[in-house]
Amino acid sequence: MLRSPTSNGGPGDAILVLLVVGETGDGKSSLIRALCVEGSQVPEVGTAARGVTKDCRLFRCCLGGRQVLLIDTPGVGDGDITVGRILVMYEEVLRGAIGNAPVVHGVIICNQIATCRVRLGADICSTMIQMGTLGGPSKWDNVFLVGTQKDRCPDSEVETFKNAGPGGTLHALNMAITSVDPNQPGNVTKVACVSVLPSKDLDELHDLVRGAALPEDGIKHTRVDPVLFGKAVCKRLNVQPETITQTIIKTRSFWEQLWLDVRDTVRDSLHLP
């Protein structure tokens, strides 16, 4: 369930809404915490191997001089939440089907810089976007690749991360996206490297968001084909594709039944036919 902030302001006050995704341990929640408006609710952070964030939550932040709502999400690799369940959670948020989820204007994909590779979380999340987000090549204009833990890396690793040419992490991400569907080449171009400890270094991300022209009516997303998605990610997860497919189908069925129950409850309470 998507949980809204409990402090001053609300979803209607925000200019931008960004979904923050990635792998467990890639610093999603720590990044959001560093961007939160002073005095507002902040996400829980930690080093639990099974992941800290277990559901989707909204946080009021300031980014690029703009009021922004960031949606924190469970990480890929969370010991308690499978990739199939995370996929359904992501797509339901993007479709505005979870609670009072607002329109989502863009996606921030977090990936540790120091690995010098596309981590599982960024790989799986970009596959979700490739298979489910509409808009053709322009859909990648709504995606930000954010390298985390810049403070732990030499300048050479930071440059490798941002490199769009062969050998660069950005290049590797776009090649991975293209491999999912060669007819829709990956074209992520918005990249920033940040750190939140021991001191904040968020300037590159602020600059990206400040200059971004994101769709006012939000990202257009459709449900991915569970069979194709299972086949696309099974080797990376070392899981049988049928297992992923069945998890997606069962989770979707759960959400559909939940909202039918909610609808019926509201109808009965208002004595509607």
Strand and helix layout:
Blueprint: E1 16-22, H1 28-35, E2 57-63, E3 66-72, H2 83-94, E4 106-112, H3 120-132, E5 143-148, H4 155-162, H5 169-180, E6 190-193, H6 203-210, H7 226-237, H8 241-269
Parallel strand pairs: 1-3, 1-4, 4-5, 5-6
Antiparallel strand pairs: 2-3
Characterise the protein shown here.
This protein is α/β, with parallel strands linked by helices. It is built from 8 helices and 6 strands. It has helices spanning 28-35, 83-94, 120-132, 155-162, 169-180, 203-210, 226-237, 241-269, and strands at 16-22, 57-63, 66-72, 106-112, 143-148, 190-193. The two termini are 28 Å apart.
Brief write-up:
The protein has 273 residues and is an alpha/beta fold. It has helices at 28-35, 83-94, 120-132, 155-162, 169-180, 203-210, 226-237, 241-269; strands at residues 16-22, 57-63, 66-72, 106-112, 143-148, 190-193. Strand 4, helix 3 (120-132) and strand 5 (143-148) form a beta-alpha-beta unit.
